[in-house]
């Protein structure tokens, strides 16, 4: 499985939560109640996405 450093974009939502998007991993979007939680959730989501993509033979470009 590929590992590395990925940029996480955070967006504060009107209800006070934070959406976290990993733009270099298609479909990798999650959220958290705080910035810290959103970043932690983004890391978990990225690992899960990369694992599934590897199992399916989907290549994520560098």
> How far do the termini sit from each other?
13 Å
Mean pLDDT: 92
The domain count comes to: 1
Helix percentage: 25-40%
Structural Rg: 12 Å
Organism: Arsenicibacter rosenii
Domain HicB-like antitoxin of toxin-antitoxin system: 6-61
Protein name: HicB-like antitoxin of toxin-antitoxin system domain-containing protein
Pfam families: HicB_lk_antitox
Explained architecture:
This protein has 62 residues and is α+β, with helices and mostly antiparallel strands. The chain has one domain (9-55). The protein has 1 helix and 3 strands. Strands 1-2-3 form a 3-stranded antiparallel β-sheet, covered by helices on one side. It is elongated, with a radius of gyration of 12 Å.
Summarize the structure.
It holds the Pfam family HicB_lk_antitox. 35% of the residues lie in helices and 19% in strands.
Which key phrases capture this entry?
alpha+beta, single chain, 1 helix, 35% helix, 62 residues, HicB-like, HicB-like antitoxin of toxin-antitoxin system domain-containing protein, TA_system_antitoxin, TTHA1013/TTHA0281-like
């Amino acid at each position: 499985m590929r590992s590395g450093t990925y940029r996480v974009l955070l967006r504060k939502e009107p209800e006070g939560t934070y959406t976290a998007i990993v733009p270099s991993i298609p479909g990798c979007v999650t959220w958290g109640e705080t910035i810290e939680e959103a970043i932690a959730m983004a890391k978990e989501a990225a690992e899960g996405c990369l694992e599934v993509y590897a199992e399916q033979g989907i290549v994520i470009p560098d």
